């Protein structure tokens, strides 16, 4: 199978995932992984679909395989933490959330998950700190996006002005 056909298969799996057809998505992602066993995004997405279907053990297995492919993949640690939390293993979940944050200090979703877990554990101060970090990261990302958009828009307006002046010669 060619790289293009594997990519098309993966895109089809993602389409099914986005339509909440998790069973179909898992089946197609498994086919992708038969062809390309080290496809970490396919492996992680399969784990997320399994988690959505309330199969935390299968999800954890997929996240473990994803982490074998890339031991520094923060998203896989975060998602495995969610699966562990769903099984009631708060300490292991907390460990994975901490690892995701250590690997990617800008990963707001991991802070949110950890803050939610801290709140469930009665650690109000720690939960509050994580939720404040999420708010800070959200504001930072919005400002960054707005600034990048303003830079793009300013450049676009300059180009339009140049074109207009060239056309009016």
Helical percent range? over 70%
Question: What's the total number of strands?
Answer: 0
Largest sheet: none
Tally of separate domains: 1
Structural class: mainly alpha
CA-based gyration radius: 21 Å
- Strand share of the residues? under 5%
Element pattern in H and E: HHHHHHHH
**Number of helical segments with 4 or more residues:** 8
Morphology: elongated
Q: Which architecture name does CATH use?
A: Alpha Horseshoe
Uncertain residue ranges: none
Mean pLDDT: 87
Write down the CATH class: Mainly Alpha
Query: Per CATH, what is the topology?
Result: Serine Threonine Protein Phosphatase 5, Tetratricopeptide repeat
Instruction: Calculate the terminal CA-CA distance, rounded to whole Å.
Output: 56 Å
Give the full name of the CATH homologous superfamily. Tetratricopeptide repeat domain
Q: How would the blueprint of this fold be written?
A:
Elements: H1 3-18, H2 22-35, H3 40-52, H4 56-69, H5 74-86, H6 90-103, H7 108-120, H8 124-167
Helix pairs in contact: 1-2, 2-3, 3-4, 3-5, 4-5, 5-6, 5-7, 6-7, 7-8
Q: Which characteristics define this entry?
A:
elongated; 169 residues; 0% strand
Describe the protein in words.
By secondary structure, the protein is mostly helical. The protein has a single domain (3-167), classed as Serine Threonine Protein Phosphatase 5, Tetratricopeptide repeat. Helix content is 83%, strand content 0%. The chain is built from 8 helices and no strands. The protein has helices spanning 3-18, 22-35, 40-52, 56-69, 74-86, 90-103, 108-120, 124-167. α5 runs parallel beside α7 (108-120). It is elongated, with a radius of gyration of 21 Å. The mean pLDDT is 87.
């Amino acid at each position: 199978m060619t790289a293009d056909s594997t990519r098309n298969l993966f895109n089809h799996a993602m389409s099914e995932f986005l339509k909440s057809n998790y069973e179909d998505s898992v089946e197609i992602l498994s086919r992708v992984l038969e062809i390309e066993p080290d496809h970490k995004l396919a492996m992680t997405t399969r784990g997320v679909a399994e988690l959505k279907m309330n199969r935390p053990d299968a999800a954890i297995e997929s996240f473990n395989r994803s982490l074998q492919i890339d031991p520094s993949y923060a998203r896989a640690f975060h998602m495995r933490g969610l699966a562990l939390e769903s099984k009631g293993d708060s300490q292991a979940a907390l460990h994975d959330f901490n690892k995701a944050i250590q690997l990617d200090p800008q990963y707001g979703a991991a802070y949110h998950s950890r803050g939610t877990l801290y709140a469930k554990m009665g650690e109000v101060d720690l939960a509050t700190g994580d939720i404040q970090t999420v708010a800070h990261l959200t504001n930072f990302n919005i400002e960054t996006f707005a600034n990048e958009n303003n830079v793009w828009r300013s450049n676009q307006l300059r180009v339009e002005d140049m074109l207009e002046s060239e056309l009016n010669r």
